[in-house]
Every structure is written in C-alpha cells, then in structure tokens.
Amino acid sequence: MANFYIKTNAVTHELPDNKRPKFFMFGVPGYTNMGDQAISLAARKYIENEFPEYQYIEVLEDDDDKAIPVVKKAINRCDIVAFTGGGNMGNLYSNHEVARRKVFSTFTDNLTISFPQSIHFEDNEDGRKEQKLSQAAYSKNKNLVLVARDAQSYHRMQTTFNNTVIFTPDMVLYMDPLKKNVKRSGALFVFRHDGEKVVKDSVVQGLKKSLDNGRPIEFTDTVLDDVDAITPVTRGKLYERELELFSHQEVIITDRWHAMVFSVLTGTPCLLMGNSYGKGKHAYFDWIESIDWVSYTDEEDLGRINRQLKFLMNSSRHDYDVKPDFKQLHDIIKNYYQNKK
Amino acid sequence: MANFYIKTNAVTHELPDNKRPKFFMFGVPGYTNMGDQAISLAARKYIENEFPEYQYIEVLEDDDDKAIPVVKKAINRCDIVAFTGGGNMGNLYSNHEVARRKVFSTFTDNLTISFPQSIHFEDNEDGRKEQKLSQAAYSKNKNLVLVARDAQSYHRMQTTFNNTVIFTPDMVLYMDPLKKNVKRSGALFVFRHDGEKVVKDSVVQGLKKSLDNGRPIEFTDTVLDDVDAITPVTRGKLYERELELFSHQEVIITDRWHAMVFSVLTGTPCLLMGNSYGKGKHAYFDWIESIDWVSYTDEEDLGRINRQLKFLMNSSRHDYDVKPDFKQLHDIIKNYYQNKK
C-alpha cells in the first residue's frame, strides 16, 4: 500500500480523493530517534491490521501546521484524528506539546486520540505554565481520548486533564517478536545523552569493566547519528537494522525504554536503568515484568548488578502476550466507527 | 440511611419495594479481615456519594446463594449488579471465586461489575482448571466489566478473559484521609499468616531489634481476632478503630497492602514488603509511589532497610489525590444509567 502523507518539501502527496474513512496521524517524527520511529511504524501497523476499513494518513511533524487547515476542510464524520505517541507529553519537549495543543483544539468534532504517551510536567514555573496551556487546549475537545502507556502517566493524566484517559502499553509492544536464533556476541551499552539522563558514569564504567573479559563492548544510542532524517518510507528498513543489531548481542545495558522493548522483541537479555522521571521503570513493571530476560534496576552496587546480569543472561526465552492490553484502544475506535458509519 | 441487605440468620431485610434503581453488591464479607471490610465500606460510600439515584443493597457472602434467585426475580433494567473487590480473584480463595462465577453467569442482562481486584491463577493443575471454569462463567456475561486494581492484574485479566477490563485503584483509596495530629509512639508490625506470606522471619526480627530502642513494639494483623464476624452495621466503627490504631504509630512495617493504605490515610510512615505474587508491590507503584511517607521494598539487607525507614520517618506529609483515578468506573456506571433510564 502506498504511503500517503502530506509533505511540503521533497515529496508532496495530496489527500486521497476516495470515500474510505481516514485515520489522520499527526506529529509523525522525522528525527532519528529509533524509539519514536518504531512507535510510528507500530501505530500504522496497528491501525492497518485492526481497522483495515480506515485509510491511514501520516502527517510529518514539520508539516503539522500546513496540514491542519487542509485536513480540517476535508474531514468527514467517520474520520479519526490522532497524535503520535511517545515519551514527550509535558514541558520537556515543548515543540511536540505545542503541536499537540493545536491538533487537539482544532479537530473537536471527531474522535481525537493521543496515542500512548508518558507525561511529565516539571514542578517548577515553566512546568506549571505549560501545564495550564495544555489544560486549556485539551479541554476544548470533548472527543479527545488520552492514552497513557504506564500507570504513573495514567494517574498524572487523570489528575491533570478532564478528558477520557485509557491505559495501554507503548505501541512498539504491538510489533511481532523476531524469532530467529543468531549467534550472540558482545555487550551493547545504549545510553541517552539528553536532560533525562540520571545513571552515574561510575556505574556504567564499572559494568563495562566487569563485562569486558574478551567480549566486544560497544556504546550507542537509539538516536541514530548516521542518517540526518527518517521518513515513513525509510523507517521500516532502519527499524529492521536496529532489531538485527540487538538480536546479535549477549546483553543490553540501557537507560532507554525502547532499547528494552527492542530487547523484548529480539529475546536479548537487557537491564534497564532509570531516567529523570521513571517512565521506563513504570512501563517495565506495568507490562513486561513477567518476561524473564529483561529487568529493571535502580541499584548502584556493582556486585548486585552483576548478579542480576548473570541471571538475565542465563534465562530462557518464553512466549509472552501483550497484544490483549491494547483492548481499550481497540474498543474506542471500533465503537466510534460503528456509531458514525 | 438504613442498611439494606439480605441476611438469612440474625437479621432479614426484604428487598425494598420502591421505584429507585438498585445497586446490588454481592459477596460482602462477614469475616474479620479489615482490608476487605474497608473495601466494602468504601464501595458503598463510593456509590452513595457518586450515584445517589441508586439504592445500595448489600448481600453478605453467606447469603449469596439464597439471594441470587430473589434478586433475579426483582431486578429491573436500570439496576446494576456488582461483586465485592479485593485480592481474591483466582484459585487461591476458591469460595470467593465460585460465588463470583455464579453471580456473573446469572445476571447477564444487566451491567455487572467486578469491583477492583487483583487476580492470581497459579501456574499448576489446580490453577489451570479453576481458570477454565472462570473463563466459561465470565464469558456468559457480555455486560460484565472487570476492574483491575493494579497494572499486573489489568494485564492478567485482559489475557485471561474476553470481558471489558478497566483500571482503577483499590476502593479504600477513595476514603478520606484522617487529618488530625496525634502523638505518635511505637512501631507496629502488621504481617499476614496465610499462604501468601514470603517475608523472612530473620528480616522481621532484625527490624524489630533495630527499632526496639525504648520504643513500644507490637505485632498484629489486619485480620482481627477479637471479634468473630463483622457486618455492614459494625464495620464502620471497627474501621475507625483501625485508623485510630494506625494514626498513633511512628512507623508501620507490613506485608499487607491495606496496612499500607491505612498508613496513607493516616499519614503514618510505612514500609511495605512482598507477598507471594506482588499484589501490594504493583498497587504501590501504580497509585501511591509519589506519597512520601510510604514505600515498598524487596530488600533483605537490614542496613539498607533501616536507612529507608529513617527516610520515611523523617518525611513530611503532603496532599495527594487518587480520586480522579476512579474515572473509568464512574463513566461506566454513568453511561449505563443514562442509556437505560
């Protein structure tokens, strides 16, 4: 199926002229964070698998402003508007939050879904100011449904906004696991370089030392630095390349939630550490604590962490099933379509 | 308001003969577990506060079997059937599970709500057998809504049953906090004596020793042993007595989830430890991790636990707000009433 999306620079696609109901996904990332790219890939796969009656249309984040009036003019009663999921609701990534407010406060007559997100407004002047702006914008839309991807965010969304809030996993957990047996070698350290980083360098260096007994050790991030931008056309291949990378590792040490998700999907032993506000920790306990080859820790004692790593690296693979946990999202879309068609 | 409930021994109340819609709560406990009693108290308070149009009718668990045909005959289209919340869905407490199946498979034409529960079917022959029986019974009721009180249970219910599953806190977190400043003295150890117990005696005794510097130390359980049974008439006073007991303590050490909830409500420093399947741990992380005077640990190192206790005992009290987290339950009931009336 062709990719339809509105893009004002390199490639421009017009809105398709047909009678199918449309699912407009705004805020689709062009930047090179593979976690966010995988989210967009999974959201598309989810809608196209579960609701084939809908035509899925992606609006890249750079085009949100130009696309809003175009979509506003073309939108029909069955159509659904959505905004990309991730870990950026709040005041830490205000470009995303500003775009979200515009979309939510514009399409007030259609089901509008904020795809699975974590939320964090800081408890300071900027956080409170931005929260008020978001509350004002979100409250204009009675058809807006917020999806929380962890219980902490579910609680925060319900205490912050008056909108309906539902609870599902991160979209990437909808993706199929990669089931092949490849030879594993090496430890991959996947760490963020942004303001959310809290893991101490001494802990990371200590773990590097203890894993470094002839084993290849590499450092990377899920934010790619060998491409400038990613589009819905190129992200599929890059996602596969990322899973391929993970599937060859003996172990992943990370503070990136999606590095843990990629480890789940590839059966790769993985230890997740904290970020500044617990988004990975909560998502881990909520959805994947029962998966034997991944775990979370706040520990700083190297002896204890090494014992935990040994346990993970010796664990067996087993089946798991997170897909039923998307049911609240499924029911919201299904009921809307049945009422409107 | 009078207590209406069907009771076949001491006191018998007939079903009230009026036109008000009824809210039938089955499985109301008569046993002396104050956690479960507080749940029943809170459920009644919740419905009476939020849906005053409904008349709340409690059916004690001993009377479930006799009440089912009586209610079946009298039930009207606006009426709602519910089964008491708690931590007993699964195969560990089969008397509750058997009663639940009967109620769910009987009232299939009315909204039926399984109040906030944790679920645990063991991964053994008995667990699998009982799970199949529950799946068969629950699947007969298309109007059944299961409420999970922690994310682990939300996941398990969605992977086990085809019914709608929603996510709210334990009902007791709906109760108002006790805001009075009383003189605190002593440490209270509140430990279970049932099959869910996993905390090592050496840890408990070690903590007792370190807290025992002239401070009164007592051991108790939230299951009372000075009364034989509790009814909807007597539970209110016993609940107040329990909160009074907690509010005078300097610190609570416990493996009982509701001992932690009573500590939240009374502003009492509390450290919660594990049970056999993590129901307290998950509920803690999901709803009350942001409350400073309570915490959870799996730790067995006494030095570390003592540092955590010191931190809790030095923490300040602050406001918290869990009530918005009951919104999914509220919306289900509100929408049902508006569609049926």
TrEMBL record, chains A, B:
Residues 33-277 form the Polysaccharide pyruvyl transferase domain. This is Exopolysaccharide biosynthesis protein. The lineage of its organism: Bacteria, Bacillati, Bacillota, Bacilli, Lactobacillales.
